[in-house]
Design goal:
This protein is mostly helical. It is 72% helix and 0% strand. The radius of gyration is 21 Å and the shape is elongated. The mean pLDDT is 82.
């Protein structure tokens, strides 16, 4: 079995799944909200928020240096900690969102007990 048979393209990316793309579009157009989009896009949101956190950290460092060299050096030293805290809170929030969706999926599939 060669690497092309393992379910990936030569570049190492998974093959395009037209069925999944149709499922995503149909979930977007589902007016009854029986199919959720959030679990499908949460990874993209996470990557975007990591980029926003990185830009925010750079902006904080630049603002600190414009206020003074001493404050700039201090923020340069503290910025990795601030960035990691920001990433931690982003991750925790998104994990809570996913947990809520998983709880819903588990409860939706259970029969009602009366």
């Amino acid at each position: 079995m060669n690497e092309h048979d393992a379910g990936s393209t030569p570049s190492g990316q998974p093959p395009f799944d037209a069925e999944a793309a149709r499922g995503f579009i149909s979930a977007l157009m589902d007016l009854s909200f029986k199919s959720f989009v959030t679990p499908k896009v949460i990874q993209i949101v996470y990557v975007l928020l990591l980029g926003v956190a990185a830009l925010w950290t750079i902006a904080v460092i630049a603002a600190a240096f414009s206020a003074g060299t001493g404050i700039g050096i201090l923020m340069l030293l503290l910025s990795p900690v601030l960035y990691l805290l920001c990433v931690l809170f982003i991750r925790m929030y998104l994990e809570i969102v996913i947990v809520l969706f998983r709880i819903y999926e588990i409860l939706r599939d259970r029969p009602l007990q009366t």
